[in-house]
Records
---
Amino acid sequence: MGINEFAALVKAASISLAAMSADRKNEALARIAGALADRRDEIVKANREDLVRSESENLAEPLLKRLKFDEAKIEEAVEGIHSLIKLEDPVGKTLFSMEMDDGLELYRTTCPIGVIGVIFESRPDALVQISTLCLKSGNGVLLKGGSEARETNRVLADVVIKATREAGVPANWIKLLETRAEVGEMLKMDEFIDLIIPRGSNEFVRYIMDNSRIPVMGHAEGICHCYVDEDFDMDMAVKIVVDSKTQYVAVCNATETLLVHERAASGFLPALKKALDEKRVEIVGCPKTREIIPAGPAGEEDWRAEYLDYKLSVKVVGSLDEAIGHINRYGSGHTDSIITTSRDKASRFMSLVDSGNVFWNCSTRFSDGFRYGLGAEVGISTGKIHARGPVGLEGLVIYKYKLIGNGHTVAEYANREKTFKHRKMDKPCPL
Amino acid sequence: MGINEFAALVKAASISLAAMSADRKNEALARIAGALADRRDEIVKANREDLVRSESENLAEPLLKRLKFDEAKIEEAVEGIHSLIKLEDPVGKTLFSMEMDDGLELYRTTCPIGVIGVIFESRPDALVQISTLCLKSGNGVLLKGGSEARETNRVLADVVIKATREAGVPANWIKLLETRAEVGEMLKMDEFIDLIIPRGSNEFVRYIMDNSRIPVMGHAEGICHCYVDEDFDMDMAVKIVVDSKTQYVAVCNATETLLVHERAASGFLPALKKALDEKRVEIVGCPKTREIIPAGPAGEEDWRAEYLDYKLSVKVVGSLDEAIGHINRYGSGHTDSIITTSRDKASRFMSLVDSGNVFWNCSTRFSDGFRYGLGAEVGISTGKIHARGPVGLEGLVIYKYKLIGNGHTVAEYANREKTFKHRKMDKPCPL
């Protein structure tokens, strides 16, 4: 079967999945969780095969780490599914209702997007996580995993397919593309795929974004900033910058560049340096920074760098607006924080910084769906269409308009025999 | 100045436009309306030049018709701006608020998307309409008009630029690309343009959609359906199908294909034929249709055709699900209506038809932002991401997360010294 016929089957199944009850979907989720636990040994065995083969093929260390799917990871996946079951069904919510005229009622109600293309590198946990999120939100799934994880992915896809079939979910709602199918082919299937969610390294995500006309939800980079204003509290500023940089360096919401107002720099930078030295953070800075504290030189490439490491670039700026300009130019639209005692400056920063998450007096590391209390996280989006910042289940639904009449035609309104009432209602859609 | 420098200026101006007050934006809108009226003669004169030149260059009749921008059109544009002024500012609304912990408050607030690329063929009214919608929603605009309308576009852009400058809107928030700049260049500027809105013929919109990685909001085609079920009211069905097909044939929400249940066909089709004959509608049909009423043969191409004319294709189907399958296969995801007395069948149709607008017992012609009571209409979207169906001002905004703390760091939560409260609030963002 060709990849297009595969995709057409998923598209067809996604239509009936869209109308499936919340109970049925939750039962299917519970069965997936059960089957993951039951087939634990088989999953771990398949994963070991992948690890051994990939190691012998000299797969890079970070990819090997992501590839690992052991009992602890299975346990985590099962827990994730149980919390997903508890979330409200995102489908069928009435967002808006309007009585257009007597007996003519308009409803805007949420519905699944359709078919989600999930492309992931290593990380078999992404397979389970994204496919269960898609099921809960009523979307069909076309999965494409990397060849390094092929044995694990086959077992996991089999678990999901069998468990959902037993629960009465339409066959074909999810398909794992065999590894010989090229990612490139999938990126062209805009007839069947409505949205692509990539999971993997920055280069991987960037490649997907640059090579598809299908909308992509995700982020390639997290170049996050802290800006310490001239009006600032010393202890708070040190504490926030240290947390933003060092609490966990290998993640997208860790701060990579610190901007400091020139009137704050001579007081703040030495105190910060002392605290960062304890965490063994390497500092590179602009010439003004290097006049105040010892640091390597920072070049243009440092302002665009996502170190994901114990390294920080520092720039002294002449004004709040210079800081905002720097962030909008070099940042990745992810998360940026201002540390200031001035409410007005915080307000200006939060209005003018064009990022999905703008913070005042707190660490950039808070930028996360679970910390936000959004429940399950589909991912973090740095796009500016549809969904932005940490994206929960609501990022996997769109809406349709339902209009219920009783023989209404437009001619009477065009002739002015009738006129619209346009009375807002607050009524759930009865269908 | 190159097209990229042009675009960079708009991007920079869009940042401060994003923070502009509703009053300032409304004052700028009022000045545009005033200037359009004041410079009426100049606009009409420029438009006549375009019309004369384009006619001598043998521009097609429908394009010439769209190109015309006379006093009546100016009046309409001015009225449109006055109703736009009355609409609520879509920017700065708090969509969601959450107390994450004591003194740590999260807000999701609406903000402009950024820079909108507007590409239009003929239709100088699109220039005024879309640019004023973008201004109200705080977005920068890069405009690219067709060479056929160049004189009109220059005057109109000058009106908008001068009027908004007088009102204190940042210079460069809007730029008209000179006609020598290629559309192709604009489609590649994903660094500066966040969303493209095309206005023109189906072929034109399709070309834009097929040739850009930037998200496109619009619809290429409206292949709308009426389905008459076996349980139906004869008078209502005839009335709705006649209205859907003939009330105005040249528009995207006119019905192009009628589907009829086989148990309804022999009673319904002769009655419908009689009514459509009065409107001189040509009918083409499937073999079963042609056994019941005189009609030309309909082929595969007819199910995909947007006639925009007094022509209807008719197919007899064996079941509701066959009708749904036909619509999902051949339709354009625009608007589809079921005529039935059965609530259950209506519900199934509205759940399973994968279109932005699904109707029960009313004409497809209702699918329109003004009829829906949404106020100003940005356009109709057949996409499934961001906005769908008739799109009002809310389609030109996205949101950002604002997090306000008081020295909060993630370390304490990771160490379990503190735990999140995640208490939903109902509080507008104070910044």
---
Amino acid sequence: MCNFAELPKTAHLIEVGPRDGLQSEPDFFPTAAKIEMIRRAVRAGIREIEATSFVHPKRVPQMQDAAEVIQTILPELPPEVEIIALVPNEKGFERAVAAGLRKVRLVLTASQTFHRKNFNQSIEETQAEFAQVFARGKAAGVNCVGIIAASWGCPYEGRVAVEQPLRLAEGLEQAGATEIFFADTTGMAVPTTVYRLLQEAVARLSVPVGVHFHNTRSTGYANVVAALQAGVNRFDTSLGGLGGCPFAPRATGNIATEDTAHMLNEMRIETGTSLEQLISTVTWLEASMGKKLPGQLAKAGPAFL
Amino acid sequence: MCNFAELPKTAHLIEVGPRDGLQSEPDFFPTAAKIEMIRRAVRAGIREIEATSFVHPKRVPQMQDAAEVIQTILPELPPEVEIIALVPNEKGFERAVAAGLRKVRLVLTASQTFHRKNFNQSIEETQAEFAQVFARGKAAGVNCVGIIAASWGCPYEGRVAVEQPLRLAEGLEQAGATEIFFADTTGMAVPTTVYRLLQEAVARLSVPVGVHFHNTRSTGYANVVAALQAGVNRFDTSLGGLGGCPFAPRATGNIATEDTAHMLNEMRIETGTSLEQLISTVTWLEASMGKKLPGQLAKAGPAFL
């Protein structure tokens, strides 16, 4: 049996809509709209935002305005708001820091095949490159967060042994990662597998642990609760559940910020967000994108007023 | 912290698509298609099906073929498959038994306002009427299952004190209910409130306890896991997640049979169903209805083959 009374009292939501959410959108979302999306998220109480990624603009054209987004938004935000970005390599790190960022995210994949598809090199080659990035991060006082993609399964290799993401996480921590996030990139995790990996991760790692869930097969929110039960309370979410997965084109993507905040509110876990403002931001986002997003709270409204 | 190792090893899925799923569909789903839907569910391994409701045909025209559906399907099914129906009153009970049913469901609502909207009478008036039905059920050897609608909240009255559904459940058990189901009719429950009510219900009731969740606000599958953690393993589900809620017209309805079965499979909880056949039934259902359903597994496919 389970003791829900021992759940964390607060949760930290990291808004990844502007990066992971928009990344797979075929149409370019205008720079001004990206900036407005970040502003609105901050107004709704979000305190950490993955705003963009410093990848090669030819590889991800949607993120070609990375420097402009960061340079516009940074000066106007209160100091308690953290703006972060994904960097794939040393070049990306340089660009991110030049734009003013003090925290970046570095991704390894828990399966070799999937990693090679993403990075065009082996896990070991990326690890070697990241060692340089970590060294520069340490020297410059820039926090480097390690992300382990496909921690619960890979669309190419299938099941991933629990030791694989754990081993990569320990390596990233030793290299200097200041936080570790485990990502269920294509929505293959279920509460029992989430709990098993995270319980182990929390026991073995000294840095804060977070998670990134996709709701591809309806388990995303159940996985949030399993993570909380393992003591993990840092969640990547995206406004409206924006962000699909290229491997399951008709399936929904990230867990929605507003649906997660609503569930946590009702569970008496404080997120610091305003449901009303999250919903109005989703309404604005849907109008801006000209389509409905998969998050459900904006459709159904909060359970209790 | 939580011990996922103590979860039930099996789960029993009750397919409610033919009744709760179809009930709110504006277009009449042909009788032959309803029968085919039940046949396919049985072929996919489902062992209990809420096939229809014996309500007044003017009140719910979709269910006007209740007797025909039951009389056609009953003779052809193997004895281990239970076909059940909702009955609102003694008249409905008579019709259900005349059609050959040996198990029916009776609904009370945990809030007075919502109950009156559904039944046009008070909870107490319905309880009095049900006493007659239970007596006739006992005499005829027909099992009567008690359902408590709006157990976790009411769209009119808001929050529902945990004692209210528990008190109604105890009353139904005393009257002769052979099982009790708690329903989150408009998707207002979260894992902590699910756990709180069910832990209490399991402790107080002697009959088997089940649950009926809607995914209106993305918490349906998380609530399934919380129910399992409270020791409850009987779940109403509907193929494709068919079945909206009139109070949240654009939000999805029941938790999907195939998504629930997939999650439970991955959690090593046996449901006795074939994912492949559940998915092909959803594909058939979507084609028959000419629309996409909210369940995600039919879109994304199983996580692992």
---
Amino acid sequence: MEPLLIGVDVGGTNIRMGVVTPDGHIPKKIEYPMDMSRGGLAMMEGLVSRLQDFIQQETGRDRSEIRIGIGIAGSIDMKRGLLVTSPNLPDLHGFPLQAYLQERISYPIIIENDANAFTLGEGWKGAAKGSRHYCGITLGTGVGGGIVVEGEILHGSEGMGGEVGHMVLNPKGPLCGCGGRGCLEVYASGSGIRRRALEANKKGKGKKILKKGRGDIKKVTSEEVFEAAKEGDRTALKIFNEMGRYLGLGLVNLIHLFNPEKIVIGGKVSKAWDYFIGSTTEVVHQRTMKGQREKVQIVQTECGDDAGILGAAYVALKLE
Amino acid sequence: MEPLLIGVDVGGTNIRMGVVTPDGHIPKKIEYPMDMSRGGLAMMEGLVSRLQDFIQQETGRDRSEIRIGIGIAGSIDMKRGLLVTSPNLPDLHGFPLQAYLQERISYPIIIENDANAFTLGEGWKGAAKGSRHYCGITLGTGVGGGIVVEGEILHGSEGMGGEVGHMVLNPKGPLCGCGGRGCLEVYASGSGIRRRALEANKKGKGKKILKKGRGDIKKVTSEEVFEAAKEGDRTALKIFNEMGRYLGLGLVNLIHLFNPEKIVIGGKVSKAWDYFIGSTTEVVHQRTMKGQREKVQIVQTECGDDAGILGAAYVALKLE
């Protein structure tokens, strides 16, 4: 009997879980906000409880084999099942996540970085289907990435590879949460877009952006900067143009290092695709070598919000 | 019977070839200057002739199986055996190198990028022995690199991956031969060191460097800048310090993307190790995440000038 899969996507603001069939359909899924008010451990307890309920309700009694895959933001030591660092769970650094979950849930569980899960989801059912050499990038609150080499996700020696968001693009650039400066993440993330909107506001620019924030620039979201861009706000348009150029520099590095067939870009910021992709492809064209440039396709997510669930389920499917 | 291997390292100024035993010893090797005076094709004809002589003289009559591996600078399309671009052989762009050689030499031949060969040589017999996740960097006239993932060199979809030298570190930096700006190569190569010496000279700095060039700064080599550093020339010391910092930025990117156990650094510029490695490790310490930084060792080549021959032979050994 084929296993039934549960894919879980632990994001920065929401948790999504879905029943996934071995051929990649999602007959049932739920989404609920991630409650961080009582800290990371309480959040984990909540996750376990929700997951137990979901399994019981959705999988029926006669399923002999269930496997669970969980994608979670952060640097994961896959060998030891540790959450080494996590941007959303600062009180759980070094947390033995795999063991914690496995003690509470009787079905086999595997954890994976959320951007790796996104990447695998796109390779399984989305924009990189059939590709054996590709990269995935998630433009969310932060910037995540996954690298597939010869059909396998690149984990590196400890499972912490593929940290695309922390490539240095400008050594004197703004400070990043990782301790570095001028990483891709400070330019191409939702936080980076907000930062640029704040900086523009200080110079008296971006009136439509300010309006979106109901007069308080500090409350403006990256989605609202995008809204302002759609309405033709010149500052907002400039912000996405600049963001696209830095993203392009990041892609140049990925192309030189990995010679991929495809680069799939997802995450909420990728919804502003038409507002940044022009400058991205321009930079890629200017700065890569001909042989490499000709082959690579830069494409938008096809799985959208489901990519994380699909990829987490895929990891569980491939569990040995 | 085990195959006898011939490893060939086609560098920018010299060609080295060696007989290599299947356990990685080099009982015999030769080195001769690369003659580019009559163009790339004449150089190739010379290489074939030398190689034929070398095989005849050194391998005896009773060897039933001989395999030849050739490491050569440039972007190589391994699927089709093409030399897509090569810094030293500008007139051979797109040249069908594999077919050309195989038509002239009856033993099996495999071509590989020279920095990949260096990297594999270090993994086989040198500083990365036993490691399954590591990177190799060659600091020569240019900067090359090789990435090993799960024990295999990363070729990417067309065999053009691992172009470490063309990671963008500073988007407004000096123009690079690849068409980009501020690539690792413009900072950490021998050419980059010469460029900095010239720039310093224009400002009236680096008297000992100028002296090494017998009064003509344009004739100064990167080795001579190193000599001046050893004699305490402050400008030369500063040049290597700065070069080390950019190299560090490159390593930060490799560590974030590949989570390697080791990074092995070779090439002629690496001989100035003690003059740049301090600032390199400082930058790596400042800009990488704890979990990744703790694991990685940054080490100097152990095979030295033999790494290329060994790695090319290793590729031939693994030929299926």
